[in-house]
């Protein structure tokens, strides 16, 4: 048996799954470190759930191999993999009590009754549901069911925990609480967690790293902060938080600062770690909160189309002379002085605020 | 409770009761006939007797028929419940178009006219050496009862989240253990209802039975049928009455259980 306290690493080599001509997974290579919390994030149909189900053993890959802790599990039946899985909709056994559900994996493993009772009690305490052990799943709220599913998936000390949209059916407030709880649980247990979601906030809140998936491939993989600050493609820049996009051609480069010719005039852009040459076409991504009212190194005049106060910030939609739409977020300290709709304002941004991304 | 009695409603209810009477009255004719003290089938004139009931439970021919029917019925029910339930669960797991096509095939024994099944089975059983054997009759009745189990179990599975089967697998249970521990307990009602159907179908099956048996298997409906043709022993009426009684009791138990289960829902 492996050391119970440590998670195990996962390696995917060229993992593909075809349904006829449709490539649900298309040559995915991925290394999840032992003890890591990795989230697969993507829109529906991006292959994230297929990837998770391939890990769990319910989807047989067309090509490729899955290694866990150094040995291939590609041909292993789901029940032999020893992974905890939290399913979408929780998939609790409706005819068993909470204790029955949580104790089931231990019963299957042939543990004695006193041992099962003790472990079930510990697992339920871990998710703060000890007092509901004799209830049936249908007598619990959504959040409680989710915790039972979590306790059931963890009670047998699995090598890793797979979560398929675990917060999907919960309301926003509860989701936030459970995200924090799950994150703490992960830190405490030190096991490998792989989570699937389409909710970028959830992904950012819990994960060590995020793999953004699109059309069966991993589009970009990295820490939440790195992905947010340095998206590589237009898709990532737009899916993980919103972005403005400005197209231009490089006309000059001086000390890492490129000058671009765009439809609304010149733009200066700090190249950073992504080199470019004169004459290259670049697509720049610009976060709405990095756009500021008032002149800056880059300056534009634009008409205010809508300005909405949202409490924590204000959202302003603008349109430039070329017809380019820009979204601008004002922090709470500036949100009091919202520009009036229909007026023309000057706005600007720092050369380092833009990131060159690959177009789709 | 406060519904107003319009002439239309009165007419409607009257017709409904006439139809019910029309459907049920002939069935109950066997009750008075079975109580006649005479040795031939007749309406009792004043005096009532239970002698024909006594003969049903003492004469070897009747007891043998009862025994055969019970054996065939139980055997057919077990096989139909197992195969029909397994088919329904398997197709539920597979899903998709293939499952739907096979699902229609599984209902065929119910759709094909019994006489066609009877002819086909009698030919097949002769070839297979199952003609006029208890096992042959059991198998024939199981084929007829299987679609009912398939239907009721499929209906019970409809509301079940397929992911609970995956959940059981992920928790360490193999495919068979998953069916036993997680799926079967959730379709128990469907299996019981289907099994009951299968038993009732076997209990009063006559057409196929006539074609696949001759002398060594003699079920109750066969005995009744041949008795009515050969002589008019009132024991037939006694048997019919007993069968009606059994049906009414089973139906009542079912109805009461359903009502008891439906009650808490009404309150909330």
UniProtKB/TrEMBL annotation, chain A:
Entry annotated with the keyword S-adenosyl-L-methionine: no
GO-annotated molecular function: ATP binding; ATP hydrolysis activity; transmembrane transporter activity
The entry's keywords: ATP-binding, Nucleotide-binding, Transport
Any Pfam family hit: TOBE_2
Gene3D superfamilies: 2.40.50.100, P-loop containing nucleotide triphosphate hydrolases
Top-level taxonomic group: Bacteria
A GO CC annotation given for this chain: ATP-binding cassette (ABC) transporter complex
InterPro entries noted in UniProt: AAA+_ATPase (IPR003593), ABC_SmlMolc_Importer (IPR050093), ABC_transporter-like_ATP-bd (IPR003439), ABC_transporter-like_CS (IPR017871), Mo/tungstate-bd_C_term_dom (IPR008995), P-loop_NTPase (IPR027417), Transp-assoc_OB_typ2 (IPR013611)
Record GO biological process: putrescine transport
ABC transporter domain sequence ranges: 10-240
Record keyword Transport present: yes
Protein name: Polyamine ABC transporter ATP-binding protein
Organism of derivation: Zavarzinia aquatilis
From TrEMBL, chain B:
GO CC entries: plasma membrane
Keyword annotations from UniProtKB, A to Z: Cell inner membrane, Cell membrane, Membrane, Transmembrane, Transmembrane helix, Transport
Annotated signal sequence range: none
GO biological process, one term: transmembrane transport
Short name of any one Pfam family annotated for the protein: BPD_transp_1
Positions of the ABC transmembrane type-1 domain: 66-254
Alphabetized Gene3D superfamilies for the sequence: MetI-like
Compartment list: Cell inner membrane; Cell membrane
Topology of the protein relative to the lipid bilayer: Multi-pass membrane protein
Ranges that cross the membrane: 7-29, 70-92, 104-126, 138-160, 189-212, 232-256
PANTHER family, sorted: INNER MEMBRANE ABC TRANSPORTER PERMEASE PROTEIN YDCV
Family, as annotated: Belongs to the binding-protein-dependent transport system permease family.
Protein name in the entry: ABC transporter permease
């Amino acid at each position: 048996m492996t050391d119970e306290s440590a998670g195990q690493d996962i390696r995917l080599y060229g993992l593909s799954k075809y349904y006829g001509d449709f490539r649900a997974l298309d040559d995915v290579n991925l290394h999840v470190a032992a003890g890591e919390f990795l989230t697969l994030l993507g829109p529906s149909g991006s292959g994230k759930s297929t990837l998770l189900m391939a890990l769990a053993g319910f989807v047989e890959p067309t090509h490729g191999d899955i290694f866990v802790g150094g040995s291939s599990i590609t041909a292993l039946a789901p029940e032999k993999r020893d992974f905890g899985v939290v399913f979408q909709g929780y998939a609790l056994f409706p005819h068993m009590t909470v204790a029955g559900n949580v104790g089931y994996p231990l019963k299957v493993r042939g543990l004695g009754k006193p041992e099962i009772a003790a472990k079930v009690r510990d697992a339920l305490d871990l998710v703060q549901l000890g007092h509901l052990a004799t209830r049936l799943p249908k007598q619990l709220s959504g959040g409680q069911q989710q915790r039972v599913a979590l306790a059931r998936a963890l009670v047998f000390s699995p090598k890793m925990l797979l979560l398929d949209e675990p917060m999907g059916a919960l309301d926003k407030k509860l989701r936030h609480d459970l995200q924090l709880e799950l994150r703490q649980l992960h830190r405490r247990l030190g096991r490998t967690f792989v989570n699937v979601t389409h909710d970028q906030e959830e992904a950012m809140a819990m994960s060590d790293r995020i793999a953004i998936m699109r059309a069966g491939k991993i589009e970009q993989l990295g820490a939440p902060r790195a992905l947010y600050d340095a998206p590589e493609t237009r898709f990532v820049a737009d899916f993980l938080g919103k972005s403005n996009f400005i197209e231009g051609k490089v006309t000059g480069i001086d000390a890492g600062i490129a000058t671009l010719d765009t439809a609304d005039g010149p733009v200066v852009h700090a190249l950073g770690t992504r080199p470019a040459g004169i004459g290259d076409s670049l697509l720049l991504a610009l976060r709405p909160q990095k756009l500021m009212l008032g002149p800056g190194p880059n300056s534009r005049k634009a008409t205010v189309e809508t300005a909405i106060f949202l409490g924590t910030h204000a959202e302003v939609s603008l349109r430039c002379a070329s017809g380019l739409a820009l979204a601008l977020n004002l922090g709470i300290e500036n949100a009091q002085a919202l520009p009036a709709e229909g007026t023309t304002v000057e706005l600007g941004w720092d050369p380092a605020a833009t990131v060159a991304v690959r177009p789709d | 409770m406060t519904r107003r009695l319009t002439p239309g409603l009165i007419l409607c209810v009257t017709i409904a009761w006439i139809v019910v009477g029309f459907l049920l009255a002939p069935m109950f004719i066997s009750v008075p006939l079975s109580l006649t003290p005479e040795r031939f089938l007749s309406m009792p004139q004043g005096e009532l007797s239970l002698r024909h009931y006594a003969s049903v439970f003492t004469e070897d021919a009747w007891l043998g028929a009862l025994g055969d029917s019970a054996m065939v019925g139980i055997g057919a029910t077990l096989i139909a419940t197992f195969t029909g339930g397994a088919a329904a669960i398997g197709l539920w797991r597979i899903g998709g178009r293939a499952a739907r096509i096979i699902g229609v095939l599984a209902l065929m024994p119910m759709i094909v006219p019994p006489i066609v099944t009877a002819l086909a089975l009698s030919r097949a059983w002769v070839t297979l050496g199952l003609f006029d054997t208890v096992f042959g009759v059991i198998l024939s009745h199981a084929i007829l009862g299987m679609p009912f189990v398939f239907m009721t179990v499929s209906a019970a599975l409809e509301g079940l989240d397929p992911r609970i089967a995956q959940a059981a697998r992920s928790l360490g249970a193999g495919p068979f253990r998953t069916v036993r521990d997680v799926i079967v307990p959730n379709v128990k009602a469907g299996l019981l209802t289907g099994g009951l159907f299968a038993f009732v179908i076997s209990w009063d099956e006559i057409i196929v039975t006539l074609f696949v048996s001759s002398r060594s298997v003699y079920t109750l409906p066969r005995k009744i049928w041949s008795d009515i043709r050969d002589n008019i022993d009132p024991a037939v009426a006694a048997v019919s009455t007993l069968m009606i009684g059994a049906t009414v009791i089973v139906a009542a138990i079912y109805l009461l259980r359903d009502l008891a289960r439906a009650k808490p829902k009404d309150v909330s």
